[in-house]
Structures are given as structure tokens and as C-alpha cells.
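Record 1 of the preview.
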Amino acid sequence: MNIIIVILIGIVFLLSFSVTTVFAGGNDIVANPYFSINIPDNWAYREGSYTLEAKNTGLGPGNLIELTPNEFSDILVGGGGVIEKIRQDGTPYAIFFQDTDYPKNAPLESYVKYRINNYGIQNITSQQYTTVGNEKSVRIYANESAWYGGAKIALYLVMHDKEPYVVLYVANAKNYEKYLPEFEQMVKSFRFADSASSEGDGNLTNTQSNFSGANLTESSTRDTTNNKTQEELYNECVNVAGKSLCDSLFKR
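->
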């Protein structure tokens, strides 16, 4: 019964935002008022609004992008069926969105705990800190969830301007490995709108260059994202989210 409730919540979520026409990517930067990403030419996408205005009127500023490889683009047509296709067929699917439902100014670690429970994520294989868009982020790999069944998951959760953002990729085992490098490149291209002019070869910085789930390299140097040591970050995490979650994040 609990799994059914979680799935129903997911369906309501996917039906609650307004969307535009489905487009084919072309290595172009797709931007909305909040963020931008570079979409490969073999991925289709649609933009949407997951804002209070959209929920009330059907229209609102764009803060959401859904994507899938071109050959699966039918999954983006219409307002429903995405979760069911992922659960049944393992269709590869990605979504980047600003979560306007969650309270502003909440700690990242609290949001991580909320999302793990909300998606019903199980069988987590890796959970660690990284950065997305020059902001501290938590990256989670898992092999199962209530929303998407046995589809594998790559999930990034990040706070920017006191609001949470979600970057999610799901697919069955075969499709997951096939399209993971392209998803990785999209994550690396992610820019928040107020920092889109920043230079460099990507806003995703990580001591590992792949998505293997290997541990981050530990060091006694200070974290450049907030000028705090790993021990200070760990203690803050424990105060907010509890020792169990933080031991997993920090590989204790």
C-alpha cells in the first residue's frame, strides 16, 4: 500500500506542471529563468513550469526540463505515462527541475533525507558530496525505488539561492550504462542563471571523472565551496540530518 501511495504521488507530480512542445536537442544551450543545460543532438526534450503560477493557471515561468534519447521521445508526448513506461520498459529518462514545493532556506541534508523518502529510494550503492553549478550537492546512486521500480538511478540534489533543485536520471541496467556518459555531460554543463556567464569547462567538479560510485578522495584541505574542513561539514551534517545519513555521505 505504501508503494502504491508513493507511485500515485509521483504521477500527481508529473501531471502538476505545464509543458511546451517536445524538441530535438542539438548541442544547444537550453535556458530558462533559473538554469541552463547543454543538450546533445540525440536527446529530445520538453520544457515546463513547476511553479505555483503553473499549478493555479496552467502557465508559469519555466523551471523544468525533461529529456530522453530521441528513439524514446514518445514518452514526452502527453501528460502522463512516464513513470509507468520507466517501470515497465526501463525507458531512459532525465529531469532537471527547481522544487518549489519544498520550504526555502532548508539545509541540503534535510532535503536529501526528504527526497530519499519521497522517491522511496532503496538499495543505495553510493551517496557522497560533490558540486553542481558551483554549489554543494549530494549525489546518490541506487538500484531501486518506489517511483521507478527496478530502474537504476543517478540523483543530484543541490541548493541554490535558498531553494532546492533536482537532477535525476533513471533507466534499466542496459540503457542506464549506454546513456550515462551523455547525462554526465549535461550535468557538467548545468549553470544557474545568475552565474551562467562564468567561465570554465563545466560547473560539475568532482575528484572522480566518472560515475563509477568510487569514494571521493579525502584530504585535510578545506572545502572550496564553503571554506570548511570535511570534519566541520560532517559535524554540521550530523546536527541537521543525523549520524546514520551523514556516515553514509562521508564514508564513515
